[in-house]
Amino acid sequence: xxxxxxxxxxxxxxxxxxxxxxxxxxxxxxxxxxxxxxxxxxxxxxxxxxxxxxxxxxxxxxxxxxxxxxxxxxxxxxxxxxxxxxxxxxxxxxxxxxxxxxxxxxxxxxxxxxxxxxxxxxxxxxxxxxxxxxxxxxxxxxxxxxxxxxxxxxxxxxxxxxxxxxxxxxxxxxxxxxxxxxxxxxxxxxxxxxxxxxxxxxxxxxxxxxxxxxxxxxxxxxxxxxxxxxxxxxxxxxxxxxxxxxxxxxxxxxxxxxxxxxxxxxxxxxxxxxxxxxxxxxxxxxxxxxxxxxxxxxxxxxxxxxxxxxxxxxxxxxxxxxxxxxxxxxxxxxxxxxxxxxxxxxxxxxxxxxxxxxxx
Length: 360
Known about the structure:
Layout: E1 2-5, E2 12-17, H1 23-30, E3 36-41, H2 45-56, E4 62-67, H3 76-88, E5 96-101, H4 103-115, E6 122-126, H5 129-135, E7 140-145, E8 148-155, E9 160-164, H6 173-189, H7 192-200, H8 202-206, H9 210-230, H10 245-254, H11 261-278, H12 284-296, H13 308-315, E10 328-333, E11 336-340, H14 345-358
Parallel strand pairs: 2-9, 3-4, 3-5, 5-6, 6-9
Antiparallel strand pairs: 1-2, 7-8, 10-11
């Protein structure tokens, strides 16, 4: 399966496969590098680094930089350590960077590629459901700064996204479940058919049935591609991809990443749906439908108490804010969104009460 991500700046292919069999040829269609640096983390490296390295060494000399897995590594210190590795191996603009891993690896590697020598080509090899369905697509890369998620970054399109769905079989179950929150989000904001596909294929998806996962990934990636093509720099409609993320990022940060990204997005989606209902934009039946789907995939587990004031404070640092106002995504129906800029702390408080009552 293949999707062409059509953007004004450097269009690229998203190749969806169930092996690494075509990886070498796909890279050669976009790059003839003098050297290749694989950037990955300490969880992925023991599983797939040598396999990928053996493939790309048929193209050019290859080496790796392995950082400690986890969001805590998504900072400038990790970036400077990678710069040191690139200098050690004399990487220049004719080289290629490969991001091998989940969203953290993709964000870090993409940021390094955007900034080292003012730009080096890079390829995304996403290894988690979140990365395969969301973060590897669209060219948003960056790092966290102080307590603020993704505060420093760039728009930097990869030369290629190569998705091997078979690698999901080595993911912990919690990472699979968390990653599915982004797929649910794509259905909720844009694609009613995808939303229903998730409901009717739940067991096969959780069981990582090969054909079903390939089809789900294609449908989910297509949603993101279609939105990004309309708004590459997130000045308008692309903001709807952040449905559930404004409150979700605040919870993620306050928990010090005790909850994974997808779990927090699920809390945020249900909170946003509840606010939509309170504003009489959405029926209560759809709120319950969204929470039921999240529950059925194992999301919306126990959530610790966080002060609404703290959640609100983190929301005010959201990078989507413009002219001092937070762009908050609400729903009118499954597949229909609206962007508001007048969300209040009281509404967030009511939504968090709803979430606490909804969690199991």
